[in-house]
Amino acid sequence: MFFCLMKFSNALIEWYHPNKRDLPWRDTKNPYFIWISEIILQQTRVQQGLGYYMRFIEAFPTIESLANAPLEKVLKCWQGLGYYTRARNIHLTAKFVVDEYNGVLPNTYAGLLKLRGIGDYTAAAIASFAFDEPVAAIDGNVYRIYARVFGIYAPIDKGVGKKIVREIATAEFDLKQPATFNQAIMDLGGQVCLPKNPLCESCPIKAICYAFKCGEVASLPVKALKTKVRDRYFYYILIRYGIFTYISQRKDKDIWHSLFEFPLIESYHALQPEEVMLTSDWVDICGNGRVEVTYISDEQKHLLSHQHLFSRFFIVEVEKPSYLLLRDYTKVLINDMEEFSTPRLIERFLAAEPAAKYFIKGVDF
DNA sequence: AAAGCGGGGTG
DNA sequence: CACCCAGCTTT
């Protein structure tokens, strides 16, 4: 048994040294950089996170610079990455650490775990990478690898399966090289033990892998939870009031918390453009004065993992802003829109030809 | 324990 | 189309 336990780590780390990915957050022991990288990489592929990481530490090279920045600047840096609560929490925690801990991040798993936005995995990752604390970091890769290697059929997205994997991960963990072991097993998951069509022939631990030996690779790991997808219909009103438009910031308990958007009419079933323009919301937003609709976009389909959004953009010139716009929305220069963090859906429309022609530059009549 | 939260890559 | 990604927080 002991022999078997040692073999896992040895084979893994022997594979890792010549095959490790060269990633910028691996060149440092700076806890701040490692923390930022781990938050960015939550539910995010390394390839997608790389550019964001480089831009983020360029914009906020120290925890103090992050703490002192306005939230809007942090969100703008996060634009397009998704799970925007991460950006809010990273900012909250930076301020907290600067105020309460003199700018020094906790140097233990237990201390890190108390911070907002840092859960079990992230605390273990930072503690092992930055401080060499011997604690197993268990992410999606690790669940998959142990479920396959040890033939765990308990769903890894439920309590029992997680508990079993945690026990195995603790037993297999290499106490002598915490950082290397955690990096190595995640690299194996990211490069070899892939969710679909894993490269088993190139795997350093295929000889001890239950799933490989029993032909169960495609059936493991087991997942129980299904995310159900909801349809929503978004109709955005891009007001043109001279060189100004109106925007608002999204509330919590919904998608895109804290991001900026145009006045929105939401429906739970599809509406034709004419129907949108007959709603009371339309009247409230556009007012009773002279209104000219200069552009109506095609329906844009925007897919989130848990919602399907069907949306349309209306560009509307108004003579004077409605009471609702004055009361509930912020007047901004159209040319300043790029300063605000917006959902990808809006970012894309603003970057497209119709917006430039009908909204940003205006219409010649 | 389960649901909610983005966006993009991949087969 | 479904599934998944260096998960966390709230309910």
Largest sheet properties: 5 strands, mixed
Helix content range of the residues, please? 40-55%
Number of strands: 8
The count of helical stretches stands at 17
Spans of at least 5 consecutive residues whose pLDDT stays below 50 are none
Structural class estimated from helices and strands: alpha+beta
Average residue-wise pLDDT: 96
Give me the Rg, rounded.
25 Å
Task: Kindly provide the name of the CATH class of the largest domain.
Answer: Mainly Alpha
- The CATH superfamily of the largest domain turns out to be Hypothetical protein, domain 2
Principal-axes geometry comes out as: elongated
SSE order: HHHHHHHHHHHHEEEEHHEEEHEHH
The tally of domains stands at 2
Strand content: 5-15%
Measured distance between first and last alpha carbons: 82 Å
CATH architectural group of the largest domain: Orthogonal Bundle
CATH topology of the largest domain: Endonuclease III, domain 1
